[in-house]
Structure formats: C-alpha cells, structure tokens
C-alpha cells in the first residue's frame, strides 16, 4: 500500500497493492491495522456508504459540522470520478484550497479526506459506483454544504457545466464565506 501526501495537510492518496494472477486480481481494499500504522492515525470507521450515479452527476460539496465531522476514505468500484476535497479548517494555511484526483475502478486509487474538509465528486464515466468509509455517523442536522462552483475555490470539474446533474439541494448551497463551518 502506497501513501502519497497532497498539498493539503492530512489529505492523502492511497494506492493499494494489487495481487494479480491468471484468475484476475485480489487486494485488501481496507485493513485498519495497516492503514493506521502507515498513516500514523487512529481512525475507526463506523459507517460505509455507496452511491450509484450517471455521467455528469456532481455530489457535493458536503461536510458535517462540529462533533459530527466525518473523515472519509473514498474509492470507486465501477467507472471513474473526479474526487475533490476542500480544506475548510479556518486556521489552516491552505483554507479554501482544494485537491482533486481521478479515482476509478481501474486505478484502484483511494483518497483520505480528513475531518475539517468539504467533499464532492463528479462522475466522468457513463456510470460510477462510489464507495466510502466514514469515521462518524450521518447526522442530517449537522450537514453543511458549499457551492460546487464557488469562485473563491474555483474547482475545475473537468466537464462542461451544461453536463452537470445536481440535486436541488446542491444548487443552492452557500459560498465558503457564508457556509456554517
Ligand atoms: C450522506 C447520507 C445521506 N443519507 C440519505 C439522505 C437522503 O435521503 C439520501 C441522499 O442524501 P444526499 O443527497 O445528501 O446524498 P449525496 O449528495 O451523495 O451526499 C454525499 O455527498 C458527498 C459526496 C459526501 O461526501 C457526503 O458523504 C454526502 O453528503 O440519503 C443517509 O441516509 N445517510 C448518509 O450518510
């Protein structure tokens, strides 16, 4: 398993070791002992989520506030997405900055999104099956969001905006400046 740091402290890319043979491949998609040893963290994931979306679907930018904040370990089981993590830690030197990485069933890459980040993704393939682990439970009352096209973050979503498929909720999210963080 290879860990690659990003420019945002605490947010990193994981590339698992893929074991191939004449039948196909096998790999440990998550191993808490190896994950915590390699990252130096002590993460206890408590909830798994899965979402199926078609091309152009953009989910995000979402987070949960306060004691309900969630760290996420995200990956793609089918298709390809551009995954985006935005640093919304007020005291962070990279506050308001983002990293994006293409996650696909083919590259097996995973992104660890720490607490204190907003998260979103856009589907680049015909469909994408998205799977992620959370280290805190869902709490609707603690949900927060930021507009996907906030000009102060200026995310390059890689597809023309005319192709975006966005929930009614995500069409009216606040700017990062006005978000409840
Ligand atoms: C997140 C979540 C949602 N729900 C229910 C609430 C709605 O009835 C339905 C769809 O929720 P929503 O439209 O918020 O789903 P996404 O737009 O995929 O939200 C996710 O999008 C970005 C990418 C994230 O990182 C978050 O995990 C999450 O906010 O599932 C649950 O029952 N449990 C949950 O943990």
TrEMBL record:
Subunit and partners? Homodimer.
Q: What is this protein called?
A: dTDP-4-dehydrorhamnose 3,5-epimerase
> What are the site positions for Participates in a stacking interaction with the thymidine ring of dTDP-4-oxo-6-deoxyglucose?
138
Pathway where this protein functions = Carbohydrate biosynthesis; dTDP-L-rhamnose biosynthesis
The record's comment on protein family reads: Belongs to the dTDP-4-dehydrorhamnose 3,5-epimerase family.
What this protein is reported to do is described as: Catalyzes the epimerization of the C3' and C5'positions of dTDP-6-deoxy-D-xylo-4-hexulose, forming dTDP-6-deoxy-L-lyxo-4-hexulose.
User: Which PANTHER family does the entry link to?
Assistant: DTDP-6-DEOXY-D-GLUCOSE-3,5 EPIMERASE, THYMIDINE DIPHOSPHO-4-KETO-RHAMNOSE 3,5-EPIMERASE
Q: Please name the InterPro entries in this protein's record.
A: RmlC-like, RmlC-like_jellyroll, RmlC_Cupin_sf
Q: A GO term (biological process) for this protein?
A: polysaccharide biosynthetic process
Task: Specify the taxonomic lineage.
Answer: Bacteria, Pseudomonadati, Bacteroidota, Flavobacteriia, Flavobacteriales
- Which is an annotated Pfam family here? dTDP_sugar_isom
One GO molecular-function entry: dTDP-4-dehydrorhamnose 3,5-epimerase activity
Q: Which SUPFAM superfamilies match?
A: RmlC-like cupins
Q: Name one GO cellular component term.
A: cytosol
Entry keyword set: Isomerase
* Residues annotated as signal peptide: none
Source organism superkingdom:
Bacteria
According to UniProt, the reaction catalysed is:
dTDP-4-dehydro-6-deoxy-alpha-D-glucose = dTDP-4-dehydro-beta-L-rhamnose
State which Enzyme Commission number(s) the record gives: 5.1.3.13
